[in-house]
Structure formats: structure tokens, C-alpha cells
Amino acid sequence: MSGLPPAIFLMGPTAAGKTDLAIELTKVLPCELISVDSALIYRGMDIGTAKPSRDILAQYPHALIDILDPAQSYSAADFRRDALQAMGEISARGNIPLLVGGTMLYFKALLEGLADMPAADAEVRAELEERAARLGWQALHDELAGVDPVSAARIHPNDPQRLIRALEVYRVSGSSMTEHRARQSAQSTEAGASGDVQLPYTVAQLAIAPTDRQVLHERIALRFGQMLEQGFIDEVIALRARSDLHAGLPSIRAVGYRQVWDHLDGKLTSAEMQERGIIATRQLAKRQFTWLRGWADLHWLDSLACDNLPRTLKYLGSASILS
């Protein structure tokens, strides 16, 4: 092994079975779990995020779940700070940090660091959201393509959070996200200061997903139906009862929540809400696959295989994670 402590990344699309495999690993390895999910951070958003049950979380605690109120925002930089602290505490106890989730931007931020971007600007963001409401998200994506084609190629028109952030950065600073990142990369190279950015761990990176994409689609549809049966609509009604929550917040824009919110606003029928919620979840899974296809040093597992635990342990041994 290198002199760096070990860590495990377990990634994959939504509904792929990441949590189940992570729990199996904690039964045979000295691992502690860290959630890498931009929706599980929020308290009171349990059903629509497919948050592990209270019993599971009591038996297998996950760091970075239920750490924020839905009225608050949380950035990739916030995640990197909190994850590094949790990883350090786990390593100090002699255990292995096992990071599990599907928010690929968080994994990327942890691995590579983040460019020094300008702070959020509420006025600019509100103007962009109003423009999107009038003209549609495609109009904002077209605007981004004109000022930052690299980011536009990376960000889907149906990804409003990242789309608004990219345009916000340009409007606030006059420079695109791509230009900010290029400057940071050049400065890091000149200074030889990669140590502050590079993750100080020996990392094994795994991804799990069904090899048959149709199986994932069926799982997504089944799970969305189960969420509705478990009281998802009542959960959103409780959120709507709060005066400080609205449809423009990152928490409420989470997949599923914005469709139920629109249904309760009378914009969608029950059937339309369910259909659009399933479609939005499939689109999320597609974006996650897009991230993962370009990921370096990734070891894939098939969700449908019955021997994923021994396969994972064998891979971890070859990756110098297990001493």
C-alpha cells in the first residue's frame, strides 16, 4: 500500500442497489458510511429521496444524511469540506471511509477539488429563474451555449440547478465556469500545489448498475409507485405548509418533489405527476450514467449478479485497500 489511508467510493445511478451493497460491505470490513447524495442531506425529505429507514440508519449510520433544513442551500464545496472532515474522523478510528451515493458532482469535487467560483447572487438567480419560467429551460441552455459552450455541452437542459449556477457565475464575474477552472488549473500547475487539491487517500472506485437498462427503468417506476403508496404526497404537503419553502429552492427542485409540488399546485393531474416523476428519475439515471462512462479507474458491478460482495472484496484486495 501507499502511505495514504484507504477509502472506497461506491457510485451508480438511482435505484441501482448501492445502499444494499454498502451495508453488506460494512458487515465484513471495518467501514463507516458517508452519504454522497444532494437530496439525502435534507431533514423531513425521507420518502421522495428513498432515504434509508430509521432502523437501517440506526444500525448502519451514514454521515451527511439529515444535516440540513430544506430551506438551506448546500454546494459541492460544502460537501467536500464536510466529507473530508468525516473521512478524517473515520480514518483516525482505524476504519475505512465508504462513500456511497449518486451525486457525481460531489464525488468529482472530492477527488479533484473545485475552482474558486464567485459566491451565489440571489438577485441574479431570481432573474434567471423568472426568465426560465417565461421562456423555458431550453432558452437558458441556449444562452449558456453562447457564453460557455464547454459547460453547455456538459449540462443538460433539464438540469436547472447546474444550468442556473453556470449562468450565474458568468453574469456575476464576466468569466465562464470553464475559464475559472482553466485559471485554477494553470495556477495549481505553476505553484506545484496539487497537494491541497488531490484527495489524500488511496481510493478504490466502484460503480454498480444493472447491465440491462430496461431493468433499471422498471425499478425506477416501481419505486416511484411505492413512494406514492408510502405517503410521498403527504410529505410534500407538509413541506408546502411552511412559509419559507418554495418551488425555486434546490431541495424542492429535487427529482420527484418538483413534480408532486406541481401536482399540488394544480399544474399536473395525478397521472401526469406520476408519469413525469418517473421520466425525470430516468433522466437523472441517464445523466449519472453519462458521468460514469467518462470516469477513470472505475470497477463496474452488475446489480443483478449474486456474487457482488466477493467480487468487490477481490477488487479491493487488488486495489491495495485491504491490508
Q: What's the pLDDT, averaged over the residues?
A: 92
Unreliable spans: 191-196
Oligomer: single chain
What value does the Rg take, in angstroms?
20 Å
Query: How many strands, which pairing sense, and closed or not: the largest β-sheet?
Result: 6 strands, parallel
Fraction of helical residues:
40-55%
Give me the number of helical elements: 14
Structural class: alpha/beta
Task: Give the end-to-end Cα distance, rounded to a whole number of Å.
Answer: 8 Å
Shape: globular
Put the structure in a nutshell.
The chain is an alpha/beta fold. It contains 14 helices and 6 strands.
How would you characterize the overall build of this protein?
With 323 residues, this protein is an alpha/beta fold. It has helices spanning 18-28, 54-59, 76-92, 104-112, 122-135, 137-147, 149-154, 160-173, 177-191, 213-230, 232-240, 257-264, 270-293, 308-318; strands at 6-11, 31-36, 62-63, 96-101, 202-209, 299-302. The protein has a 6-stranded parallel beta sheet, with helices on both faces. Helix 2 links the parallel strand 2 and strand 3 (62-63). Helix 5 (122-135) packs across helix 8 (160-173) and helix 11 packs across helix 12 (257-264). The longest helix is centred in the last third of the chain and has 24 residues, at 270-293. It starts with 5 loop residues before the first strand and ends in a 5-residue tail after the last helix.
